[in-house]
């Protein structure tokens, strides 16, 4: 497949047009950012690892009936995806209190939530991706009420599957971020990626609060061994898929 032109470059991926306007090529980068890109660096082999993990998880979700933008992965760091118009929302699903939820509410790190919490953040770097109320989301016309209901339902479905999947990997799914897009048929598809960049993952067998971390928090907090943690996540994913 010939690649025409670069359409967009984000913090983690570059999107290219292809000869088919309905198909894009996503190139996963090794670049790493945190705190709304205030901290920058790179993680060796991150692009390949995240592309591989995302590819596997998208395929597993498709088996569950969840429609995604994933088509295939023609190279270790490349993913062919359906062209979608991204809904400018970051959808965060939380199972355990961590990160900004603790900072903003005073909840103790590790508090298990009585039910999953679905939050919407405005996907806008200039504004710092602020947390939105439903009324603000609708005021800004970022999505319709029907789309919000559908996205919330999908997010909870995805969470239910991912919790079980990660548990098979002996990993606790603390929280994660999703993005959705609308295709040419006006269907909502899961887009972006699912990886240690977008999930907060803790090793079930590890009790130390730092050593258990298997996600981008290792980069955010300068804990080291970032690539090793990402690689370990990939190996566990592949083992569960193969089994």
Itemize the secondary structure elements and their pairings.
Blueprint lengths: L2 E7 L3 E6 L4 E6 L2 E4 L4 E4 L3 H18 L6 E6 L2 E5 L2 E2 L2 E8 L3 H6 L6 E11 L8 E2 L1 H6 L5 H24 L2 E12 L5 E4 L7 E5 L13 H4 L5 H17 L1
Antiparallel strand pairs: 1-2, 2-3, 3-7, 4-5, 6-7, 8-12, 9-10, 9-12, 10-11, 12-13, 12-14
Helix pairs in contact: 1-6
Describe the 3D structure.
α1 packs parallel to α6. A hairpin with a 5-residue loop joins β12 (171-182) and β13. Strands 8, 9, 10, 11, 12, 13 and 14 form a seven-stranded antiparallel sheet that branches. The chain has 243 residues and is α+β, with helices and mostly antiparallel strands. It contains six helices and 14 strands. It is 31% helix and 34% strand.
Outline:
With 243 residues, the protein is α+β, with helices and mostly antiparallel strands. It has helices spanning 46-63, 100-105, 134-139, 145-168, 217-220, 226-242; strands spanning 3-9, 13-18, 23-28, 31-34, 39-42, 70-75, 78-82, 85-86, 89-96, 112-122, 131-132, 171-182, 188-191, 199-203. The mean pLDDT is 95.
